[in-house]
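ping. complex inputs:
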Amino acid sequence: MGENLKLPYWFFGIALVLGATLLVSDPYVASVVNIVSIAALIAVSLRFVMLIGELNFATAAFVGIGAYTAGSAITILEWPFLVALVLGGIVAALVSIVFGYITLRTKGPYFLLIGFAFTEAVRIVYSKSMVLGGNSGMVGIFPPIAFDPWMPTFVMAVVALMIFGLYLLERSDFGKILTAIRDNEDVARTVGLNILFVKIACFAIASFAAGMAGSLHAVTNNVISPGDFSFLLAAFALAYVKVGGEDNIVGPLVGAVLLVVLGSYALGLGGHEHIFYGAAVILAVLLMPEGITGLLRRGRDRLMGKGKRHAA
Amino acid sequence: MQIAIQLILTSLQIGAVYILFSLGLTIIFGVMRIVNFAHGHLFAVSALVVATVVSWLAARGFPVLPAYLLAVVAGVAVSMALGYVMYVFGFKYFQRDMVGSFILSIGLVLLLDGILLEIFGGAVRPVPEILPGNAEILGASVTIQRLFLCAMAILITAILYWALTKTKLGKALRAVSLDHEAAMLQGVPYNRMALAGFMIAAALAALAGALIAPISIVTPVIGADYLIKGFIAVIVGGLGSIPGAILGALFVAAIETFGGFYLDPTSATIAIFVLVIVVLLVRPKGLLGHG
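pong. complex structure:
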């Protein structure tokens, strides 16, 4: 197991991006870096549930739950910053366990659509809750002053840690069970695995990551509102996964970096964000079903004369 | 009593639109096993075209009723053309691929959202009153326009039901949705059936949009709300089931109306969500679902 983890690449990569964030001084660049990091974490969380073969549109709801939890902990309860941040992830995971216990008995389109409905229902709760600021949302969610200059580095470090953790889980025996469930749930059941329990565990882990992404969103954006957490958030995350490629954890990272950077460039040109993302998704699914990383891998294999790779 | 009748009538009006919507979703799912989130945009395009054409013709001195009928033809035509393009260049390649088709439809949602906003703008489009006046039913008052909408929805549903049970095309569609391989072995041309199913669904959405335009606030995002309710209706009823879609749509409409009256609209929306959870706990494939 250990020799296959490509750990030197990971450590070098994480050190490189963290070093790069230290050079960021322009506030606009810093905000783009934060958005990229958070988008990457959400995309990786979405992909983690895809390992069991389900599309988890409730991701948007859990990002929202994390953001609102961290927001209330900081502005209303005045809890310490780091505690509030982690609390966002924990609350999202707890809610997801209850939600998953009920909904993970369903599969495919039912699970997808129920997640979609959940996202919209949760959003209505925020907008009607006066404590959470109703439709206009919560303001003034600031990190401590001392953190301010280091924010991009801090966000990137938390995100890198979470993604690395999810990567290790995917490559562990637990990850193999997840893909076994995706390939054939009944076969996995016959060897005595508690499928529902494994699915809930996978869902809760992904939701913890989504909740952390929400916390980070709240403290970097300082303002959150119900409109930030519509199903479009999950749709964008899906775009990152699909454009980057879902076979490998690097795919969502490539997709998030590419689309967020191009997207903020397109916004600068006055273009429509929606048209841009929509066109990107359509072209990606029609022209390169395995995403950019899939194309790169196939190109590399052809160059090296390996011929066709066997489907994993 | 009068309140109850009024509420039942309101549920039926809302339910009528949900039925047209969820019938389309369930037919597409049954025949092609795909989830199409862009379905709401077929509805929105039709409503927007109707609103634009009616205002344009009315401003040039056309009588309202013929203007509306012309507009309906135009709206349904544009919407079905869009549906055809969606199928031929997109969904055709993603049949029986739930994840792939869903992702494609999300791309279409984003793209069409942007394009509709660009063409029609975000402003609300008023549509002049087509059939003025009110009617009294058992002491409850309804506008003629809403009554017309209900009557049309019932008529369309009845025709569809007849077509699915009695005509050759309908029987072939149902055979494909039960077991597409067995149907193909009997000589049913699957690809043609998939296109037919998709276009019937597009026509239902387009008609719903054209009917709703005079009695609703028409904006480019009008489809989103109906799409959510339509999907909830088909989950409750069971994906792929025609009676399930009708039952689910009436359920959702009744909860929305009664909950909205006795509690408030927010609680009603949450009540609908709770209903879905309860149904899925008892029957993970919906009330009348089988596949």
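Chain A has a mean pLDDT of 87.
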